[in-house]
Amino acid sequence: MDERAGQDFTIDNPATAILREDERKIAYFSMEIGIDSRIATYSGGLGVLAADTIRSCADLGVPMVAVTLLTKKGYFRQKIDAEGKQEELPDEWNPGEFLKLLPARATVTIEGRPVVIQAWMYTVRGVAGHVLPVIFLDADVPENSGADRELTYYLYGGDQRYRLCQEVILGIGGLSMLRELGYGSLVRYHMNEGHSSLLVLRLLTEAKLDNDPAWDIHGVKKQCVFTTHTPVPAGMDQFPYDLVQRVLGGYVPLDLLKQIGGKDALNMTLLALNLSHYHNGVAKQHGKVSREMFPGYHIDSITNGVHSATWVCGSFKSLFDAYIPGWERESFSLRYALSIPKDEIWAAHQEAKDRLISYVNGQTDAGLDSRTMTIGFARRATAYKRADLIFHDTAKLIEISKGAGPIQLVFGGKAHPHDWPGKELIKKIVDLSKWLKNDIKVVYLENYDIELAKLLVSGVDLWLNTPRKPMEASGTSGMKTAHNGVPSISILDGWWIEGCIEGITGWAVGQAREEAGSDAEHAQSLYGKLEYVIIPMYYHERDDWIDIMRNAIGINSSFFNTHRMVLEYSLKAYSG
Predict the structure, then answer these.
(1) Domains 4-305+565-574 and 312-560 share a fold
(2) Dist CA 389 CA 464 (whole Å)
(3) How many whole angstroms separate alpha carbon 136 and alpha carbon 122?
(4) 534 backbone φψ class: left, alpha, beta (φ>0; ψ -120 to 50)
(5) Which of 316, 317, 447, 558 qualifies as a FRET site for 169, CA 20 to 30 Å off?
């Protein structure tokens, strides 16, 4: 390890990089981490990205420890009734089945009383043997009151007080736990979104000298980096100062909090920006949007990726193993997919598609056909993602399906329990599936999770993504489909601005230079591409279609992966 100035490091040879606690250099904090589909500590993209990041760090030998909450009743298990109404059920899991309980305890003060935290560990082993620990924080211990034990029950549950208490546990409690566990050589604290930014307060108090009235803001900034995933102010956690004072007490003076966290309310994004030396958005466009939201801050961009070995389905793994040996260690080598024979690409895809269709037909009475072009859309169900855009003109959609070629549609995604428009969106699509059943088969699959995502991103023929600009920070579902040779048609926002080469890797909805574009304009663009380009190519120009499938792998998946992303973080954020 190179420890010049106590800051820089070099990545060890992954084959020998099984590190002790006192050799870890980076602490990665994330409110949610979707490291295993059976461990229900994720709601969607943020947690899945965090897990993919951790896996790539393990593969590359990056000396990291990750910290998150152990939400033992999960986000929620989604049930959708016959009328399309979403029901939220606890998604309970048993930590003892998957994690190791550690002996250390840490304590945080919440509303003036001590709250004890225990830690569980999950270990991620990289392809060359490097082990990366993930620490799960748990307040469900006998020393705590019943209400305090529930603080780590539900992901994004409860009211503002519950959320703030959780963020105290994650940020302040998480850093305290790392100290208790012996992680004594940490030099970087990476805040994945603002949920963990209270950790900077713990760092400030650690650096405070009793006889010095000054706070070492500069010293803390040198240690911290921050990734924002939010393209709109409404998505950022903000807490009124009366609540903050009630929960945190006098942990740091109120005037200091207002100086570093916002004048009118504690803005967790602003707190992280003010107390970190490196900030980044998660796509080039998102970096630009973030700089406009926070003028005066230098906000760089590192475009997201996905962990290739996790998201490539079985049939394509076999294909890549045969033609691109070592691809799991070097995601960049997926560019050689451009030379894989077309018939083998198609056969691998058909195997994945058959698996999806079999699953859907086994779960529903949709009666999907493996020979029909299948379009997939699976995202968090919320209004701005516009899952219903393709139904803007149902008469036109029916006309396209009857004229250009038949299509069938598969949807998935959860609405937040308090997102009533999102729930109405699910109901609308379920209603439309009944109304259209004689012309176009439409199915909405319940309880979208990691395992269902793997089936969808590999088994559909075309991936649809239609968010309202500029509200897509990055998006990673289309990156997952690209790894399985499935092209996208998407709004030019987030990562797709960088990934779309029209007619080569997929297709765009709307124009790159437009500010937003109306629903009607985007629907017209979508219908035009489907009717005159995409569907005819799928049915009548199979060689050209497979060319685009190969390009999706060779051009997009070889770049939009977390191996490349983690190397960028290592160069830009973790060293220097």
Answers:
(1) yes
(2) 10
(3) 8
(4) alpha
(5) 447
Contact present, 465 and 377 (Cβ < 8 Å): yes
Q: Tell if the pTM clears 0.85, that is, is over it.
A: yes
Fold designation for 4-305+565-574: Rossmann fold (3.40.50)
Task: Please give the Cα distance from 390 to 466 (Å, whole number).
Answer: 9
User: Please, which residues have CB within 8 angstroms of residue 56's CB and are 6 or more apart in sequence?
Assistant: 62, 305, 307, 561, 562, 563, 565, 566
CATH topology of domain 312-560: Rossmann fold (3.40.50)
Residue 29, pLDDT > 60, answer: yes
For residue 106, CA distances in Å to 122, 137, 380 come to: 18, 10, 35
Strand order in the sheet with 462-465: 441-445, 407-412, 373-378, 462-465, 488-491, 506-509
pLDDT over 50 (residue 542)? yes
335, burial (CB in 10 Å: exposed 0-12, middle 13-18, buried 19+): middle
Q: Could you tell me the end-to-end alpha-carbon distance of the chain, in angstroms, rounded to an integer?
A: 14
pLDDT value for 13? 37
Instruction: Give the confidence band of 576 by pLDDT, cuts at 50, 70, 90.
Output: low
Tell me the residue length of the chain.
Answer: 576
In one-letter notation, the amino acid at residue 398 is I
CB neighbours of residue 344 within 10 Å: 16
Q: Is-contact 238 208, C-beta < 8 A?
A: no
Residue 224: Cβ-neighbour burial (10 angstroms; 0-12, 13-18, 19+): buried
- Quick check: 94 and 57 in contact, CB under 8 A? no
C-alpha 472/C-alpha 73 separation (Å) is 29
Residue 8 has a pLDDT of 34
- 411 beta partners: 377, 444
Closest by CA to 85, choosing from 410, 389, 422, is 422
Domain residue limits, the chain? 4-305+565-574, 312-560
Give CA–CA dist 111/109, Å, rounded. 7
Tokens standing for 77? Answer: 């298990």
Model confidence at 4: pLDDT above 50: no
| Structure tokens given for 212 | 């010095």
Closest C-alpha among 2, 25, 19, 12 to residue 185: 25
d(CA 304, CA 229): 10
Going 132 to 99 to 69 to 202, the CA torsion angle's sign is: negative
| Amino acid in position 239 | F
